[in-house]
Amino acid sequence: MIDGDLYQANRNYRNSDPWYDNVNVEWATDTKNSKLDMHQEDSIESQLVPAQLCLFFKFKLDDTMYCVIHSCHYKSKDISVLGTMWIKEYKDKTLSSFLSGKLIDDTDHLNAMQPYLRIIKCKAIYSQCMLIPYQATSCIVIKLNHPTDWPEEFFAFP
């Protein structure tokens, strides 16, 4: 439980299937728009990036809670007023094909790709979010905007 919200990261939830919540992680941004742990450096600007929770832990003699996450890259594409397209981080998977407009590479097989995992402090978790896979074998996910934000997006979208 973090700030009154319950998060799950369990590979065998109720002796059945895995359950890994998706969250928005608050990252500080530097001048090159790469992401930094919000709570490791002082920064004025921050960005919310979706991630999947994988594991919670803390060290002995330390009250700080940490979690292992599978994050998305820091860039996204608006696809409608209802959602945004993101690409999850995998080793040897670059962001350039996503940014150039090539969404799916038929040679990608998620089972063969190794996820790029990060360790963050749990206080960097901003909120829960809904991520939907673009395709079953794709590293692309669609983050649905919260329904309370939809009216604002309809009026703000060009």
Folded structure, characterized:
A hairpin with a 5-residue loop joins strand 3 (about 20-30) and strand 4 (about 35). The model has no long low-confidence stretch (mean pLDDT about 80). By secondary structure, this protein is mainly beta. The chain is built from two helices and twelve strands, in the order E-E-E-E-E-E-E-E-H-E-E-E-E-H. It is about 5% helix and about 35% strand. The protein has one domain (about 10-155). The radius of gyration is 16 Å and the shape is globular. The strands form three sheets. Strands 3, 4, 5, 6, 9 and 10 form a six-stranded antiparallel sheet that branches. It has a four-stranded antiparallel sheet with strand order 7-8-12-11, with no helix packed on it.
